[in-house]
Amino acid sequence: TEIVGFLKEQRKEYLTKYFGDQRLAEAAFTYLEGNEILYSMCDNPSYCRIICYSLAPGLRQMQETQEVVPTTITQLFANYILNIFKNHEFNIYKHHTLSVEQIHDLVLRTGELAYMGIWNNVSRFNETHLNYYNLERSHTLPGFLIEHKDPDTSQSHFSFIHFTLQEFIAALSKYLTADAQRLPQTLTQFLDSSGGENRFKIFLRFMVGLSSPGSARIIKDLLGPLPHQVTCSVIDWVKKQTEINFNNNQNNLSKRKLLESLYYLFESQHTGLMQCTVGSGGILSLGDDFPYNAIRLTPVDCTVLATVICPCDEIQEVNLNNCCLGTEEIHRLAAALHKCKVL
Fold this sequence. Notes:
Helices cover 60% and strands 6% of the residues. It has 18 helices and five strands. It starts with 7 loop residues before the first helix and ends with a strand. The model has no long low-confidence stretch (mean pLDDT 86).
């Protein structure tokens, strides 16, 4: 059995029902179609909810102000958190009076719970967990957690609205409290830990994504400026990881590490970092003459690759042999192909 999720017409129907305004729903769909990363997430109904909640205020204000809507997944979830607390129409906490300090403390404690879950492969929490992190139901349930009741025992357990939200809150909490000097070593430990490339993959992308000016601008409106030294440490770490992976991509595993570095660059939205790593010369090799050494690229992978290549003046060579590129993948790469001297 294959689960395909929402198709195009179902996405349109969901947006129309959510916004209750045909013109706004069409504006949202047009925007999402133009952002291939976010659009690819819309096949998942739970992602659709978060996307709509994140986009709605910005789309409604775009014509009146210079409101910026999110372009990366990190910005999407940063916008979601901002709207939970700040936007009047969408403010889940409008019946609770929370100071800036209380919001900051709530985000940190919820993030600690989320991080504990990721580290221990836990996605279901109980009352003991909430009490340990001093989390009140009235503050953590709206917007963050969902309560599930066992019909047999009447006991409650809790989960984040979406596991990716758990990963984002965990990353935000760590970003706010990190030791900047030790952070590169800590990030590398996450990357190299047992199962780290899978278990901490999205968590690490969020850590990098929070270093982008767009994400920092959103978070600043809620929690104040993100720590500058942490941002510098994250950027330095991404640069080092990309350089290592760029020069060591002989087998399938090393090519996957290189692809993950490209995702870091995408989430960072740091054009200078893209130029001084990917655009500095050499061969960007995700393909291989031997099919089992090549990476089968998805349309989203191709969007990320094109986004990273576009700011560069020129790429010496891009090897995509046996990457199983179809019409959709080539279409997404089209804007960047003229930058490559050798394909």
